[in-house]
Design a protein that fits this description.
Length: 409
């Protein structure tokens, strides 16, 4: 009888241990290989979707032709944290099962939290867009955002290509572009989105072959209406004439610290006598990332041209701002100094106070071209990134030709 009782206790113990082991395995989730569709919940219960796929080193975010690698991914039990390689943004969530993650897209310095749901196996950005397109939007669009509000009103140029009901393109503004947008025309409803780890954009509109009337949402903190009409000859104002040196100022100069605390200015001996390019930017700014990628490559091949970047950071502390600067420099292998001009806010009016010789700081980024004698020869507002296609190619050619002229004078 005693032997039977002992056997019974051992058997019960074995069952309990086995059940415990199964419970541990159940919670040991992993990011399944393949495609995941992520839907951010923005205002008015709208979904802002994007796709990422797994890779050997992490994941890649897809926006039209753009691929953004993310390598900093941590999974513990049922929790997952996806940190952007360059930006502050982070996706934090929990697996509700092996095919579903629910959580938030977080930007701590701005106190922004956007709910999301990620679904494995979904390859379509807008899976519910199954109807045929009743309009074709390929071409150029004269666009106005916030058309009825003078304070917020601004102009843009839409550039789109449509194949069936699929659409890619972007909106160019006087301060930059909305990068790689991707979506569909479903009936007469246009849906476009982009997510790059810093910003999440959603454009929805009712469209015809010649008109658009819609709404733009950025994350869940901003929305505004926009209208557009087809205009194949429409062009934005000249980006070289929007920002200039104010009367009464003879030169452009500054003195800001690098990450070691050393103060650097344009009058330093190692910079004087050279063609100098000053980049007004922020590490949080996707257009600035595009521009920095191009400038870094150019600077490596043209060491006689001296680049200096001035970072205006919304990070709440100097330490966090410099951490962001170091992360960007490492990620892009930037060979020139990035100085901390401002932290705690990226407000453009505050930035203009730091650079009082400018009529305004209209855009991040803004580029200032200075010749060998120290004279400002050009100020270029904004940047036409790779998503703008021909405009990006035109910018790079113009940039290189103009800098060559300055070098040869």
């Amino acid at each position: 009888m005693k032997n039977i009782q002992t056997l019974y206790i051992i058997l019960i113990g074995f069952i309990l241990v086995s059940c415990g082991q199964k419970e541990v395995k159940k919670d040991a989730y992993k990011l399944k290989d393949g495609s995941w569709q992520v839907a951010l919940t923005v205002q008015d219960a709208k979904e802002l979707p994007f796709i990422f796929t797994t890779t050997a080193s992490g994941i890649e975010i897809h926006n039209a032709a753009e691929r953004i690698p993310i390598t900093d991914i941590t999974i513990k039990d049922d929790s997952i944290t996806i940190k952007m390689d360059v930006y502050e943004g982070v996706l934090k969530g929990k697996f509700t099962d092996e095919n579903t993650i629910k959580g938030e897209f977080i930007k701590v310095s701005l106190d922004r939290y956007v709910p999301f749901k990620a679904t494995f196996g979904e390859t379509k950005r807008f899976p519910n867009a199954k109807g045929e397109a009743k309009a074709t939007i390929t071409g150029n669009w004269e666009t106005v955002f916030s058309p009825n509000t003078e304070a917020d009103r601004y102009i843009a140029k839409g550039i789109f290509k449509q194949n069936g009901n699929k659409v890619i393109g972007t909106f160019r503004t006087t301060t930059g572009d909305y990068r790689y947008l991707e979506g569909t025309v479903n009936g007469n409803q246009l849906q476009l989105s982009a997510f790059d780890g810093a910003h999440a954009f959603l454009f929805t509109a009712t469209v015809t072959d010649s008109t658009m009337m819609g709404e733009f949402q950025s994350g869940n903190h901003w929305k505004e209406p926009f209208t557009a009409k087809r205009n194949e000859t429409y062009e934005l104002p000249d980006a070289k004439k929007l920002t200039y040196i104010k009367e009464g100022y003879d030169e452009f100069n500054f003195s800001f610290p690098d990450s070691s605390g050393k103060m650097i200015s344009l009058s330093d001996e190692n910079l004087k006598g050279n063609v100098r390019i000053v980049q007004i930017m922020g590490t949080w700014c996707p257009n600035c990332l595009d521009e920095s990628t191009y400038y870094a490559n150019y600077a490596k091949n043209n060491p006689d041209v001296k680049f200096v970047a001035l970072a205006f950071e919304y990070a709440k502390t100097k330490e966090k701002a410099f951490n962001s600067i170091k992360r960007l420099q490492k990620r892009l292998n930037i060979p020139y100094p990035i100085l901390l001009a401002q932290f705690g806010t990226s407000d453009k009016k505050k930035a203009q106070e730091k650079l009082p010789m400018l009529n305004h700081v209209l855009s991040y980024p803004t580029t200032i071209f200075i010749d060998k004698k120290g004279k400002v020869r050009r100020i270029h507002t904004g940047f036409n990134g790779p998503a703008t296609g021909d405009k990006y190619v035109a910018f790079t050619k113009d940039f290189e030709n103009f800098v060559s002229e300055l070098k040869n004078k």
